[in-house]
Every structure is written in structure tokens, then in C-alpha cells.
Amino acid sequence: MKRILIVIAMTLFVAGTAGVVAQRTAGRASAAVAPAPAPFNYAAKFVCGEFDKFSDPVNPAVPEGPVKPGNYQTAINVHNPNSIAVVLRKKAVLLFAGTAPSDETVFEQPKPPGQFFGVDLAPDFGLEIDCQDIRRQLLGPVAPPAPDFIKGWVVILTNAPLDIEVVFTGHGYKPDPATGITTREGFSLYVERVLPTQNVQ
Q1: d(CA 196, CA 165)
Q2: Which residues contact 57 (CB under 8 A, 6 or more apart)?
Q3: What values do phi and psi take at 36, rounded to 5?
């Protein structure tokens, strides 16, 4: 009788130990599975439209503006270098809108972001976000129509890293006080690569 009880006790002990080991093994297995990657956050600058086209650039009474007088365009180029499709969400933050400089009465006011818009980007596919996209989709009714000047950020969140470069082009203005005619002056082009910030909550 004692032998039977000993055998039963040993069987229960072994079974219980196996259960604990199985639970611990299952825990390690689930922990080994990589969680979904944290979003990659890209913030790309944009400047679009005409600013201060008709002001006298040497008149000291003209207030300082956010940019020099000129016409500006921005194109944000996005490429998916991954072997999987990438889901990205994009929105815009409008920091300034206007056609000429003005005296500021309130300083450093935080601006709210717009709503997110989603898009799927297949492997090796690309897309471009230009000034028309920013005005008509990302900003919508908040943005004044072209050629009024706007500037701010386009924010892109993705589940995988992307290639993102921004192309800025612009030219200045040369007003003729005698005739009142303003002509284009010069041309500039600048390309900037945008790097991501990870672990955005």
C-alpha cells in the first residue's frame, strides 16, 4: 500500500514539474517573438507659395518675415526600400500662412496638427507629396489657396524605415519702385534627406 502511495505521489510530482516547465518554456517562446516594430517618425519641412512679393526689401519699416521675399516650392519624395509593403500615415502641421510680414503681437504659439491620412506603399514603390497635396489633402480648409505662402511640417509615421528626401526650390523677387513691376531674381535648389526618430508612442 505504501509503495502504491509513493508511486502516485511521484507521478503527481513529475506531472506538476512538467507543467511548470511547460509554462516557463511557453513564456520564453512568446517573449522571443519580436513585437510589432515601433513607428518610425519622419518630420519633413515644407515651404510653399509666394511671400512678400511687392514689399520694398530695403525699407526699414517693413517687419521681418519668416522667410525672405520669394516664391517657394517643396516636394517630399518617399521610397519603400523594404521587401514588404509598408503602411504609412501622413499629416501636416501648419506653422505660418500669409502673403507679407506683419508685426507680431503674440509669440511662439503652438500650432495643432491636422488629421492623419493613410496609404499603403508596396515594395520598391515611391510617392511624392508636393505643395498641392499639402494644401488640398493634408491641410484642407485650413490652408489658403496658392500662391499664398504656407510653411510647416509634414509628419509621416510608418512601421518600417523609408527613404525620404525633400527637394526645395525657390527664387527671389526684385521690385522696381519706378515702374511697380516685380521680376524674378535668381534660383535655388536644395535637397535634404530626412532621418527617422524611433520609439514614438
Answers
A1: 11
A2: 69, 175
A3: -60, 135
**78 CB-near residues (< 8 Å, 6+ apart):** 88, 121, 126, 127, 128, 129, 156, 162, 163, 164
User: Cell digits for 10?
Assistant: 511521484
pTM above 0.85, yes or no: no
Is residue 24 exposed (0-12), middle (13-18) or buried (19+ Cβ within 10 Å)?
Answer: exposed
Tabulate helix, strand, coil % of the chain (nearest 5): 20, 40, 35
- Cβ within 8 Å of residue 36, ≥6 positions away: 159
Please classify residue 67 by burial: count the beta carbons closer than 10 Å to its beta carbon, then call 0-12 exposed, 13-18 middle and 19+ buried: middle
pLDDT tens digit sequence for 103-151: 888 888 899 999 999 999 999 999 999 999 999 999 999 999 999 999 9
DSSP category for residue 113: B
More confident residue, 7 or 56: 56
Confirm if 84 and 162 have CB atoms less than 8 A apart.
Answer: no
Ordered by start, the domain boundaries in the chain are: 1-33, 40-193
Are 69 and 55 a contacting pair, CB within 8 Å?
yes
- The grid cell for 123 is 515594395
| CB 54, CB 136: distance < 8 Å | no
Rg (CA), the chain: 29
